[in-house]
Amino acid sequence: MEKILMTRRGFDALDEELRQLKSVERPAVIRAIAEAREHGDLSENAEYHAAREKQSFIEGRIKEVEGLLGRAEVIDTSKLSGSIKFGATVKIVDEDTDEERTYQIVGESEADIENNLLNIKSPLARALIGKEPGDSVEVRTPGGERSYEVISVDFR
């Protein structure tokens, strides 16, 4: 099976989600199903069907998270240095607009662009891999070609 690269923070977040699903969400939905059953006829019981659907989602997510954690390869970013690679926190500037952005390059399962966590498989991350401060990269985006200059690389 293919290993899934993850930062320690990403691994810990998934581990916490799994704990929450198993110890809080699963017991709550089991109680909701039991309560809905007490209301009688299940064929027309919307509460029962909603609880069963939620249970199905929770069980599916538990399996998914367990699979991710089982295949995780946690990378200690504090031991890395040099050019941009997985785990790097990169400050870049758009060469056209002078807009600065900072991203950490992370695995697919922990990527969240709203929190500046950039998927390693994204076009921008792929273009940045191997670059160093002062280097320029060209990235094809849905909005057209973009040019960025690498300002800094940090491994925290």
Automatic annotation (TrEMBL):
The keyword Transmembrane does not apply. InterPro entries: GreA/GreB_C_sf, TF_GreA/GreB_CS, Tscrpt_elong_fac_GreA, Tscrpt_elong_fac_GreA/B, Tscrpt_elong_fac_GreA/B_C, Tscrpt_elong_fac_GreA/B_fam, Tscrpt_elong_fac_GreA/B_N, Tscrpt_elong_fac_GreA/B_N_sf. The keyword GTP-binding does not apply. Keywords: DNA-binding, Elongation factor, Protein biosynthesis, Transcription, Transcription regulation. Residues 4-74 form the Transcription elongation factor GreA/GreB N-terminal domain. SUPFAM superfamilies: FKBP-like, GreA transcript cleavage protein, N-terminal domain. Residues 82-154 form the Transcription elongation factor GreA/GreB C-terminal domain. One of its GO terms (molecular function) is translation elongation factor activity. Belongs to the GreA/GreB family. Necessary for efficient RNA polymerase transcription elongation past template-encoded arresting sites. The arresting sites in DNA have the property of trapping a certain fraction of elongating RNA polymerases that pass through, resulting in locked ternary complexes. Cleavage of the nascent transcript by cleavage factors such as GreA or GreB allows the resumption of elongation from the new 3'terminus. GreA releases sequences of 2 to 3 nucleotides. PANTHER family: TRANSCRIPTION ELONGATION FACTOR GREA. This is Transcription elongation factor GreA. The gene is greA.
